[in-house]
Amino acid sequence: MSSPSPIRNRVEPVMSHCSYYLDKGVSRLAADTGFSRSTISRLLAGNLSPSFALACAVTKALRRRLGVKVELFDLFSVDGKYPKPSACDAVRCPGCFLRKAFPPDAVDSNVKTPSQTNQPKEDL
Asked: Is residue 19, in this structure, part of any structural domain at all?
């Protein structure tokens, strides 16, 4: 009998859209959800398939802090596919600082980098 496939998540890219979680994000999400820092850390690292209770608690915490109705299925997936193509779409981001702050391979594949948009870096 094969083991169930792990549940994938994109909690960390969604968290990065919330200034509250930019500093001490693991500790703050742990406090907001009632789960341990260790559990949240393993979830963000992809080393934990979350329980339904954890997935719901994380979704609720992110909704509250972002002020946007993020859906559970925009954060967690059994096959790596999500209803919205990027974390930015999931949180209705109009164009975030992620495009400037991180190299292309460190953010969602749907986030455009300066070279992909044909715009000078300083204009983004």
From this structure: yes
- The runs of H, that is alpha helices, within the chain are 11-15, 19-22, 25-33, 37-45, 52-66, 72-75, 87-90, 98-101, 114-117
CATH of the domain at 14: 1.10.260
| Paired tokens of 34 | 């009632």
- CA–CA separation, 51 vs 66, rounded Å? 22
How confident is the model at residue 118, as a pLDDT?
42
Cα R_g (the chain), whole angstroms = 15
Residues 48-93: tens digit of each pLDDT: 899 999 999 999 999 999 998 999 999 999 988 999 888 888 888 8
Would residue 105 be called left, alpha or beta, if left means φ above 0 and alpha means ψ between -120 and 50 degrees?
A: alpha
Nearest alpha-carbon partner for 26 in 34, 17, 38, 18: 38
Domain span at residue 45 reads 8-94
Kindly give, in sequence order, each residue whose CB lies less than 8 Å from that of residue 78, ignoring residues fewer than 6 positions away: 5, 7, 8
